[in-house]
Amino acid sequence: MKRAYILTTTAVAVAYLTLLLIQGMSEEVSMLRELATQRATVTKLSYSALALADDLPRYLRGEVEREVLRSASLGILPNSMNVGTEEWKTASCDFLKAQGVLAELNIGGIGFGRTDGTPEGALVCKASFGYKLRDGVYDTELEDQRAISFIVPIRIYLMSDIASSFRSSIIGKVWRAFMGNIATEGNTIRRVITEAIREYQRGCSARGLEFGTSVGFEIDRGNVTTTVHINFEELWVTDMSPEAEILVNGELTRVTFRTERKAIELIFRNH
Amino acid sequence: MVDSIIANSAIWILASLIIIAPIQTEQVSLALGEAHDISQAARVLREAESLGYIDELARLEGDRAAAEEVMSKIITLVPPNYAFSLSWSSQDGCIIGTLGGDQANLSHVAIMVSTGNQITFLDLGVREV
Hints:
The structure holds two protein chains of two kinds. Chain A is an alpha+beta fold. Chain A is built from four helices and eleven strands, in the order H-H-E-E-E-H-H-E-E-E-E-E-E-E-E.
């Protein structure tokens, strides 16, 4: 009887101890496994954040290039309000959700400016990018705010400067010619205009730009006044530098700043 | 009799441990291995980004042959003792380019690559062999 009792008690104790050992081991192992999975989760969150911050400038650059191309064709400066980010935000959130990551993305303060250095008169795009990524299983969160800044090497501001300075330069030259001598001949004005165009073409060529335009004029000599009608035909400036080529629908394209034709009149009082 | 009970108990406990331990350790090493593979894949893609390969790839969306050359350059960053697969696909799931073999049992890391025309995805799977 005593022997049976000892045997049973020992068997129960051994079974209990074995169970405790196995349970302890399982808990330890589960903890280790969870730690490994959490490590993978943290890696996933951090590389997702870095990958998003790397891809946003790529996406924005494409959008900004399209806006530069559009505005240049209209002869105006690009407007950052026309740069959309909704498509990218939606795609990013869907992409992360498919990987079990919930994302709140905030892209704000998109602004354009002019480069301080080289390329001269090119565009700088700045934006802020805030993100909050949360793992759907472990609720691990990663939150940060980053400033994004990149250069689009199309010299859009320089091209705009050249277009507007050319027209004011012609007006100034014609103005000075007639103020100096009201009887200035048409040939003289023609020469002044031809020289101004050549001067701009040379200047642009030296900077890797192509410049083209034509200017017509008429002189009406009345008894009291002399009127000069100046017809500025379409003017175009193209950035020829290799960095300024952009990809549009799979084709490399150059940006041409194009201003429309414009007519002005200068009226001088005869002495 | 006491000796035989102690010996018997020890055998039971040892037997249980011998049976359970390898299963548990294998599970942990699998999870750790996967975490390690994911960090390796993430490291390769980070390095490819810092070397400008991802930007280069984004510009070559329409040129499949040139894109595969850049993808090969990315693959050179994968350690030699790793099995890999690299796949570049569009948002609607069309494969633009792919390199590497069997994707089974690989740990995958995917990133977005905006090309200017569309948003695409680059998926790198690796596994230490």
